[in-house]
């Protein structure tokens, strides 16, 4: 089992940057695929980015490609989301999530960190 705690959210102007971090506790962090998701008010939760266990593979939602970068440090049990060129439509509650390699669904979720982008 793994526990996830996000940090780094806040209020930023359009065009600005934020870096979200997710700290994981528990066993075998390096065995999990890690992802970031977000949920805006009145909308469904959506996929943002994911990174493989060894950082060899990443994937992004089309809406954030070229602006967001996901990374992980298995020695520190952390995963980060660098967000650049932020837009008002990026405003949402951002969640860190983890899944076992054998699962297609994410098993574990953090509480979320709020990102608000003003125009």
Tell me about this structure.
- It is built from no helices and eleven strands.
- It has strands at residues 2-7, 10-13, 18-26, 32-39, 46-51, 58-60, 68-73, 78-83, 92-100, 108-109, 113-118.
- It is an all-beta fold and 119 residues long.
- Strands 2, 4, 5, 6, 9, 10 and 11 form a seven-stranded mixed beta sheet that branches.
Blueprint of the fold:
Layout: E1 2-7, E2 10-13, E3 18-26, E4 32-39, E5 46-51, E6 58-60, E7 68-73, E8 78-83, E9 92-100, E10 108-109, E11 113-118
Parallel strand pairs: 2-11
Antiparallel strand pairs: 1-3, 3-8, 4-5, 4-9, 5-6, 7-8, 9-10, 9-11
Number of helix segments?
0
Strand content: over 45%
The N- to C-terminal Cα distance equals 40 Å
Q: Give the SSE string.
A: EEEEEEEEEEE
Q: How many beta-strand elements? A: 11
Shape: globular
Structural class: mainly beta
Helix fraction? Answer: under 10%
**Average residue pLDDT:** 96
Rg over CA atoms, rounded to whole Å, is: 13 Å
Main beta sheet, described?
7 strands, mixed
Low-confidence stretches: none
